Amino acid sequence: MKSISEAYSEKIKMEDKIEARKRFIYEQVGEEALEMLRESGLDIDAGVTKILKEQKEQRERLEVQAEFGTIGDIITSELVWKSGRPDDVFGKEYVRRLGLMGLNEDQTKGLYEQEKLILSCDIGIFQPHREQPWVRRYFFTEGVKESDLPKFGQLTLSELILITDDASSAYTRDHHVLSPETWGAVCKAAVQAHSFGGAQYALAFNDRTEKLGWSKEQNGAYTRNECLLTERLKWGSTDKPAWTEEGTDLAQFKR
Fold first, then answer.
1. CA distance 48 to 76
2. Which residues contact 185 (CB under 8 A, 6 or more apart)?
3. Which phi and psi (to 5°) does residue 103 adopt?
């Protein structure tokens, strides 16, 4: 049995490790990005504490799970949700994908930590959806109101794409069956409603990637490959694989 002094010493060491990890996360994310997240209403310190508390048990559970799953079917920000650190099974796939887009190690690690912070934020009625495969998430089922929708800063990069993709599909597919309240929520996000003040999550995605220093080609590559996942696994409209070298060649996304 440990003595009181030994137990206290171990507690101090653990607290030191946590504080060191916090400082590392803040450094990786960068002060400008941290300020952007604070302005979006995130409690940064609470978010980081939650992340660190969950990482160890999450890492052990999900690394085993990864051996029996198809990692290529996982949405990119979902890899961060499932990951405990950038060098575990999910983290390595995340790093690989962003590397295909030309992001360097520092950019990738900084974005990884930023996404972790965003994922520490509760998104209300949509929070349980994060526990399910993201590629088949629906945001605009009947009854959802505009007031139910998450704020832009509460969503990861991939979620900004997913909510836009789902709204755009609902705009075309369900316009005749949705209530006025749910239709109003759809129009906030659907790209077809851009001229009426829609596509707001797509615009938020563009704004965030611009602040991250991404080129338009990188923006296009990320968006296209995430949509390839939903097209194949949610809508069944293609069998083309996502996140390949060919599919992330930036030359094809020049505008």
1. 20
2. 140, 144, 145, 146, 148, 149, 167
3. -80, 140
3-state secondary structure (DSSP) of residue 172: helix
Q: Determine contact, residues 62/83, Cβ cutoff 8 Å.
A: yes
Q: Which backbone phi and psi does 133 adopt, to 5 degrees? A: -55, 120
**Virtual CA dihedral for 161, 163, 165, 168, nearest 10 degrees?**
-140
With 0.85 as the threshold, say if the pTM is over it.
no
Cβ neighbours of 193 (radius 10 Å): 19
Residue type, 139: F
| Average pLDDT score over residue span 30-52 | 83
Say yes or no to pLDDT of 65 above 60.
no
Closest to 202 measured CA to CA, from 233, 243, 168:
168
Amino acid, single-letter form, for residue 118: I
- How far apart CA 186 and CA 180 sit, in angstroms, is 10
The CA distances from residue 98 to 3, 38, 44, 58, 86, in Å, are 48, 25, 24, 23, 12
> CB burial class (10 A; 0-12, 13-18, 19+) of residue 46?
exposed
Distance in angstroms (rounded) separating the CA atoms of residues 255 and 245:
20
Radius of gyration of the chain (CA): 19
The mean pLDDT of 51-76, rounded to a whole number, is 66
Written as six digits, the tokens of 91 are 């983290």
> DSSP letters along 208-232, please?
HHHHTT--HHHHHHHHHHHHHHHHH
Residue 89 is which amino acid?
V
Question: Which two tokens mark 80?
Answer: 């961060």
- Could you tell me the two tokens for 114? 């930023």
Model confidence at 56, pLDDT cuts 50, 70, 90, reads: low
